[in-house]
Amino acid sequence: MRLLRPRRAGVDRALHRRLVRQAASLLLAYPDDGHAGRLDVAGQLVDHITGPEEDMLGTAVRALDEPDLLVLAQRYVETFDLRRRSTMYLTYWTAGDTRNRGAEMHAFASAYRAAGVEPPAHESPDHLPVVLEFAATVDPAAGEELLTRYRVALDVLHTSLHEAGSPYAQVVAAVCATLPPVTARDEERARRLAQAGPPRESIGLQPFTLTVPPRPAPSSPSDGSSRRGVPES
Predict the structure, then answer these.
(1) What's this model's pTM, rounded to 2 decimal places?
(2) I want to staple 113 with a disulfide (CB 3.0 to 4.6 A). Which of 30, 87, 136, 202 is the partner?
(3) Could you tell me which CATH class the domain 9-196 is placed in?
């Protein structure tokens, strides 16, 4: 019997990670008309989660239980769109406004296609809620690899949200808790990234259905150019 216990524990832990990531994906979504429904589903998922992640996500569910969607949406935009140091576009942390960002985003799209799905058409493939839903519902192993690759960015994002007093900090903390422990090298990279900020400078497959909605496209600047996926400085 003892030989079976590690396997059982491994299966339960894998399911636990998927539940945490699905709940986090729902909680990090833009608060549109579907917010109340997603919040309810997230609360049901939290009922099946144990450990520190249960408290983290439960706290976020209660904090985001705001009936005024306009207030929630304004806070969301102020948190994630108007501050470079709290963006949820993961490649922006490592490539910023440089040409390398395109290649990094392609890696996300390639991972989705390798799992048999097409990236969502109306959201960037590196947007954290999208990556979390992919990891929870499509390919847990590939999703975890993507999240682990950007672990340093997630830690810096969590710190930024925590310092701002945002309820979303608890959600990102729960996601980080599902990933391998940070190393001393990771901590040093996180310290440098926090100080410097982000750098400047498949046919025939069906897209996987997102539970989280794509965020409304930001208003076009006066010159008519688009800055989708690029937070303001």
Answers:
(1) 0.77
(2) 202
(3) mainly alpha
